[in-house]
Design a protein that fits this description.
Elements lengths: L2 E4 L8 H12 L4 E3 L8 E7 L4 E7 L2 E5 L1 H6 L4 E9 L1 E6 L2 E2 L7 E5 L4 E6 L6 E9 L7 H5 L11 H16 L5 H23 L7 H18 L8 H7 L4 H9 L5 H17 L9 H7 L5 H12 L3 H16 L23
Antiparallel strand pairs: 1-3, 2-5, 3-4, 4-11, 5-10, 6-9, 6-11, 7-8, 7-10
Helix pairs in contact: 4-5, 5-6, 7-8, 9-10, 9-11
């Protein structure tokens, strides 16, 4: 479960100090400075993945520094990897400087001094995801890692894109998992970090077989999702694209409880279901939705959809439209009596 913290409950004059204490307790001790402390804002979420921690932060523009004195005072002996999802940031450490970046990642070592600047997006805020893990858990060792500190890791292609997407998915879906599942997600995160950084160094051979397998599966998943609309996307095509045999592909998927073909079909059906529920696409015929996601035979698609969701595609679309209409008019009953306040009031999910 996320531990969520917000500056909303803190007097404006105390929010900078509050955020500095928060960063010190959840990441590392740093000094934080803002050009506009009176209007400073911050929120955070923290989730434990069993020895690995994922944190989300939303905050106003700031400058932060971790000096040698800070390191002597407190050092969790971790590597931390930050992904900037909104706004931009720069980080300097170990005689390297990332320069300003957005949508990319950067790695730092808590045992070394560092300096960082963060500039907001159009809404005045920076949003970032940070993965923290013990140095001993890093699949790569020593001087190899030092070469990567404060080096921008592009999040738009290759293993960087796969890792960035995984970090985003953790913030959205990990809180729904149980303790054992969370530990598994943390282990996958470490394998992906190792594979991404090893690829930057050309040192894939330094990884364990398990880490290489996790990275291969992540690349396969990304390839499948990117090519769902291609009717020629088959397990044989996936195996050929990744230079492995069909038998090897099937063995990789054995531990997942679904075959490669089943995954392709499930992901296609999920995309179709999303579009069928979209009110903007009500005028698009069902067979066109199916064809857009690789189903060339309407009858085969209809049977597969009914087997997966218990209703026909047309029935699902009609029910989704009915529910959407009822949400717009609470008097029709789906959201309770007109004017009633929604119950629960769950906190805003991290971004």
């Amino acid at each position: 479960m996320w531990s969520r913290l917000s500056a909303a409950a803190v007097p404006a004059a105390e929010r900078m100090d509050w955020f500095a204490d928060l960063v010190s307790s959840q990441l590392v001790t740093t000094a934080i400075r803002s050009e506009s402390p009176g209007s400073f804002w911050a929120e955070a979420g923290v989730l434990d993945l069993g020895g690995v921690q994922v944190s989300t932060f939303e905050f106003s523009a700031l400058h932060s520094s971790r000096t040698a004195a800070h390191v002597r005072r407190s050092d969790p002996e971790q590597y931390q990897l930050g992904l900037v999802t909104h706004g931009s940031m720069s980080l300097a450490q170990n005689r390297s400087d990332s320069g300003m970046f957005s949508g990319d990642m950067v790695l730092w070592d808590t045992s070394r001094p560092m300096w960082s600047d963060a500039l907001p997006g159009a809404d005045g805020l920076i949003r970032a995801v940070t993965l923290s893990f013990p140095k001993a858990a890093m699949p790569l060792r020593g001087a190899r890692v030092e070469r990567l500190l404060a080096q921008r890791v592009p999040g738009g292609y290759g293993m960087g894109a796969i890792l960035a997407q995984y970090l985003r998915s953790l913030t959205a879906h990990a809180p729904d998992c149980g303790p054992t599942e969370l530990e598994g997600l943390g282990a996958v995160a470490l394998d992906l970090v190792g594979s991404c950084l090893a690829a930057r160094l050309g040192a894939e051979g330094a990884l364990t077989a398990e880490a290489r397998e996790t990275a291969l599966l992540a690349r396969i998943d990304a390839f499948v999702d990117h090519n769902l609309g291609d009717p020629g996307l088959t397990p044989a095509a996936v195996a050929a694209r990744h230079g492995i045999s069909l038998r090897r592909l099937q063995l990789l998927f054995r531990g997942r409880g679904e075959s490669p073909a089943a995954r392709i079909r499930r992901r296609r059906l999920e995309r179709c279901r999303t579009e069928l529920a979209d009110p903007v696409l009500l005028g698009r015929p069902v067979h066109e939705v199916a064809g857009r996601w690789g189903f060339t035979n309407p009858s085969v698609f209809s049977r597969a959809f009914r087997d997966a969701y218990g209703v026909s595609p047309t029935e699902y679309r009609q029910e989704a439209a009915r529910k959407g209409s009822a949400r717009q008019d609470p008097a029709r009953g789906i959201s309770g009596a007109r004017g009633a306040r929604p119950s629960g009031g769950s906190p805003r999910p991290p971004r």
